[in-house]
Amino acid sequence: MTPQPIPTMQIAPITLQGPGLRLEPLSLDHLDGLTAVGLDPALWRWVPSQVRTAAGMRAYVEAALKDQASGVSLPFALVLAGPGQAGPVVGSSRFGNISLRDRRLEIGWTWVAPAWQRSNVNTEAKTLLLTHAFETLGAHRVELKTDALNDKSRAAIARIGASQEGVFRRHIVTDTGRVRDTVYFSIIDSEWPDVKARLQAMRR
């Protein structure tokens, strides 16, 4: 019997629109907006690679677009906007570590400018990305990870219903020279309805 082709995810740049947030395919057109809100050192405390200057932000965006061209990433700019309305860029996020055949990807590289961190932006972004991953792309598994020392991020990921799977010890050497332990979480397709309900409750 001839083996049947295994269906894979079909990923392409797309705009994801929520009630007050739009996720636009990242481009160099977003560079000035990202630079204006994204150079606060506190944003990059738990990120292995630091972005502290306009040149650093350009390199960050160009690296994301290079990964997109190679098929392993799909980056977005987070834009405050309702349908038909344009607003400021307030951060960035992306699908990364994409495995089309395995129907697996990671949501990460997420940062939100300080002025909007106590708003609904992060929850809305996660809702849009997870909905697209499971309901449009047909993902089997979505991964999320964070620095083991980042208690706030760990709590936020657990709160939406992701399962902690383990700690990768001495996983990444950061720009500061610190060797980071990384905590891995995941959500699988059978868990998505419960996670979606949690996110909808958090958005109210």
Automatic annotation (TrEMBL):
PROSITE patterns: GNAT
Organism: Roseateles albus
Name recorded for this polypeptide: GNAT family protein
Database matches in Gene3D superfamilies: 3.40.630.30
PANTHER family to which the protein is assigned, alphabetical: BLL6696 PROTEIN (PTHR43610), N-ACETYLTRANSFERASE DOMAIN-CONTAINING PROTEIN (PTHR43610:SF1)
InterPro entries (UniProt xref): Acyl_CoA_acyltransferase, GNAT_dom
Lineage: Bacteria, Pseudomonadati, Pseudomonadota, Betaproteobacteria, Burkholderiales
N-acetyltransferase domain boundaries: 21-186
SUPFAM superfamilies for this protein: Acyl-CoA N-acyltransferases (Nat)
